[in-house]
C-alpha cells in the first residue's frame, strides 16, 4: 500500500501542511521525551540542589525551560508550524 501526498509549496497553507508532515517524527520524539522523561529529569535536578530555596514558580520555570530545550534539540519551531 502506498500513499502519495502532494503539496503546492507556492501556497502558504500547503507549505505549512508540508512542514508539519515532514516534522511529524521530530514532534513525536519530542512528545515522547516530554511525556516520559521530563518529570524525572526535573525532579532529579531539583533534588540534587536541596540547599537552594525554591517556590512553585521555580519548578514551573524548570519544566518550561526543559520543554523549550527538547523542542530545540528536535529542530522544532512552534511558530513555524502554527502561524
Short description:
69% of the residues lie in helices and 0% in strands.
Can you describe what's shown?
- With about 80 residues, this protein is mainly alpha-helical.
- The chain has one domain.
- Helix content is about 70%, strand content about 0%.
- The protein is built from 5 helices and no strands.
- The mean pLDDT is about 90.
List keywords for this structure.
83 residues, mainly alpha, 0% strand
Q: How large, in whole angstroms, is the Cα Rg?
A: 18 Å
User: What distance separates the N and C termini?
Assistant: 33 Å
Poorly predicted ranges (pLDDT <50, ≥5 residues)? Answer: none
The pLDDT mean sits at 91
The total strand number stands at 0
Can you write the helix and strand succession as a string?
Answer: HHHHH
Given the C-alpha coordinates, what overall shape results?
A: elongated
Characterize the main sheet. none
Number of helices: 5
Helicity, in percent? 55-70%
Strand content: under 5%
- The number of domains is 1
* Quaternary structure classification: single chain
Structural class computed from helices and strand pairing: mainly alpha
